[in-house]
Write a structure and sequence with these properties.
The protein has 193 residues and is an alpha+beta fold. It has one domain: Aminopeptidase (3-Layer(aba) Sandwich), CATH 3.40.630.30. The protein has 6 helices and 8 strands. It has helices spanning 23-31, 34-39, 50-62, 109-123, 138-147, 179-191; strands spanning 8-9, 14-17, 66-73, 76-87, 92-100, 128-134, 150-160, 166-175. An 8-stranded mixed β-sheet has the order 1-2-3-4-5-6-8-7, sandwiched between helices. Its EC number is 2.3.-.-. Keywords: Acyltransferase, Transferase. This is GNAT family N-acetyltransferase.
Length: 193
């Protein structure tokens, strides 16, 4: 497995490799929902936390640990999503670090972006695509399930969030041999929009 960093695009979204040109728009998108950072994320992109979190992301990108994407809808940045936890030896990659501004939730953006990312991961040799979701995040759990991922279990007290809360993490996955059926259902879902 070798995940290539490239632009991914369909009729709903364009995933552009994250760069400095996206920084200000990402900051604005993250400021659109102040409450979400204290409730559901292990780190914060809001206010004074933006700069250190941006530095962490760009460092991980530079080190090859993460491939970050600006999720674009037309000319507007809708959010961020990433490939991370890339384990080439075992052909496993995680899709995560996803955030969408409130006006881009609940429609085509997430399934369209995840369709592109899973398709790319499997085309690049992935055997397993993983999603890790905060157990408290009912919206994300439902979205990942609706994508066609299988819930495997819950890692109890898996992480300490930036607020000090102990997070339980729900693990989901899609395997390469499941991908054709998952892809077809996603394509039918998106065709209906």
């Amino acid at each position: 497995m070798q995940i290539a960093t490239e632009v991914l695009e369909n009729r709903f979204v364009r995933l552009e490799p994250m760069g400095d040109q996206h920084k200000d728009a990402l900051r604005a998108a993250c400021e659109a929902d102040q409450d979400i950072w204290t409730r559901l994320y292990p780190f914060s992109w809001a206010g004074e936390h933006f700069e250190p979190t941006w530095t962490m992301l760009t460092t991980h990108i530079a080190q090859g640990q993460t491939i970050g994407f600006a999720v674009m809808v037309g000319q507007a940045l809708a959010g961020l999503t990433c490939f991370r936890g890339m384990d080439a030896a075992n052909a496993v990659v995680e899709i995560g670090g996803t955030y969408y501004a409130p006006d881009h939730r609940g429609g085509a953006v997430n399934p369209a972006a995840k369709r592109l990312m899973m398709g790319h991961a499997f085309a690049c040799g992935a055997r397993r695509v993983v999603y890790r979701v905060d157990a408290l995040n009912a919206r994300s759990r439902a979205a990942v399930t609706k994508l066609g991922a299988v819930q495997e279990g819950i890692l109890r007290q898996d992480r300490v969030t930036w607020t000090g809360r102990l997070r339980d993490t729900v693990i989901f996955s899609v395997l390469a041999d499941e991908w054709p059926a998952v892809r077809d259902r996603l394509d039918a879902r998106l065709a209906a929009l």
